[in-house]
Amino acid sequence: MTADIQRLNQRLASAQPSATYRIIDRVAERRAHGAKIISLCAGEPDFDTPGHVREAAIEAIENGHTRYTQVAGVRSLREAVAAKFRRENGLDVTWQDTLVCNGGKQVIYNALAATLNEGDQVIIPAPYWVSYPEMVQLCGGEARIVTCEANTGFKLTAAALAEAITPRTRWLILNSPSNPTGAVYGREELQALAEVLLANPHVLILADDIYEHLIFDDQTFFTLAQVEPGLAARTLTMNGVSKAYAMTGWRIGFATGPRWLLEAMEKLQGQQTSGASSISQQAALAALEGPKDFIHESRAVFQSRRDLMVELLNSTPGLECVSPAGAFYAFASCSGLIGRTSPGGRVLHTDEDVAHALLDEADVAVVHGSAFGLDPYIRIAYALDDASLHKACDAIKTFCSHLR
User: Torsion-angle region of residue 103: left (phi > 0), alpha (psi -120 to 50) or beta?
Assistant: First the structure.
C-alpha cells in the first residue's frame, strides 16, 4: 500500500486522540493481563439508569418505536426539552427552539462545524474538557486557550475574557460545572462575563451545562442566557441526560438557541447521522417528564464522596486538592511529586508520568491534568462506591509515601 493511499485529512492527521480514552485503553490492557485496576478516569456515574426510564425504553420497543425519527428529534421529546429549559433555566423557548442529537458531544461538534471557517477563533478556558480544542481544530478553527489558575477557582474572569477576544473570535465555550475541576460559575461571575460579551456582539456563546444537576452545598445553578437574556440570541445552551440520569450509553444530548443556528446544525446532522435512536429518545422523554428523586439522591451521594475524596487526597504527601463545587471530579495538584522517583524507578518529570506510574505501580487509573490544559495536576473521577474510593486513595497514599 503506497503512502499516497494512506493520506489522511490534514485536520484529522494533526488531531490528538482523547487522553481519557487512552488511559481507559491502558486500563483494559492491564486488566486483560490479570491486573485488578481501580479506575478513577471515566466521566460517567456508576449508578444504574433509573427504573422508570429503562421501563419506558422496553415499552418503546414493544410499542414499535423502532424506526427512523425526524432529524431534530421527535416532537414529544423536543417539547419536554423546551419545558425543561423553561422550568429549570428560565429560558423562554418552545419546542421549535430545540434540537436533539446523538449525545452532548454531537451538539457541540455540530455547532462548531456549522459555523467555523478557517481562521475563526474559539476561546476555551483551561482547564477544559479534552475534546473542545480537538473539535475546534477538526472544524477548521483555532483554539484560543485562556489559562485559569487555582487562584481564580479555575474560572474565567471578565478581564481575561476581554483580553482574549479578537476580531477573529467566533465562540466562547463555557462549561459549568466544569470537567475537570468541578468549578461552578455564580450569578455575579456570569454577569461580569456577560458585560464583556455584550460589548462584543460578534461572539457566539456555547454554554455546556451537562453537569447542571451535580452541584453541591445547596448552591443555585445559573446559565448565561438566564442571567443575561440579552445574550440569548447568540447563545447555544447545551445539556443532556447522560450525567443527571446516569444515561451515558443512551447517547441523547439536546440544546436550545437561535433558530438560524439550530437549523444549520440540523442540516449537518441530517447528512451525518440523522436522528438519535428512537428508543433512546423515548427513554429520555421518560427521564425529563418523570420523577426527579434520582437526581436529588445521586447528588447527595456525590457530595458525600466529594468530601471523602478531598479529605483523603489532602492527607496524601505531595497532593493538594481544593473542594470542587460540582460535577464528580477532584482536580488535585501533584506539584509535590514532580522531580521525585517512584518505587519502580520511574522519574516523575510530568503529571503524565505521575498518572502512568500510578497505573503501573499502584493499580489506580487517573488522568493527567496536562491533558486538560493545566499541569501539574491529576483528575480523579469519584464515581465509585466508598469502599473502592478508600482502597484507591490508600494505594495512592502508599505510592506517594514511598517516592524518593
Answer: left
Q: Where are the domains of the chain?
A: 10-48+294-401, 51-289
Distance between the two ends of the chain, CA-based, in angstroms?
A: 49
C-alpha–C-alpha distance, residues 293 and 159, integer Å:
40
For every one of its 404 residues, what pLDDT tens digit does the chain have, with 9 covering 90 and above? 566 888 888 888 888 877 888 888 899 899 999 999 999 998 889 999 999 999 999 999 999 999 999 999 999 999 999 999 999 999 999 999 999 999 999 999 999 999 999 999 999 999 999 999 999 999 999 999 999 999 999 999 999 999 999 999 999 999 999 999 999 999 999 999 999 999 999 999 999 999 999 999 999 999 999 999 999 999 999 999 999 999 999 999 999 999 999 999 999 999 999 999 999 999 999 999 999 999 999 999 999 999 999 999 999 999 999 999 999 999 999 999 999 999 999 999 999 999 999 999 999 999 999 999 999 999 999 999 999 999 999 999 999 999 99
CATH number of 10-48+294-401: 3.90.1150.10
Predicted model pTM: 0.96
Q: What are phi and psi of 324, to 5 degrees?
A: -70, 145
- Smallest CA-to-CA distance from 108 within 132, 85, 142 is with 132
Cβ–Cβ < 8 Å for 278, 60: yes
- CATH ID of 51-289, from 3.40.50.11540, 3.40.640.10, 1.10.287.990, 3.30.450.40: 3.40.640.10
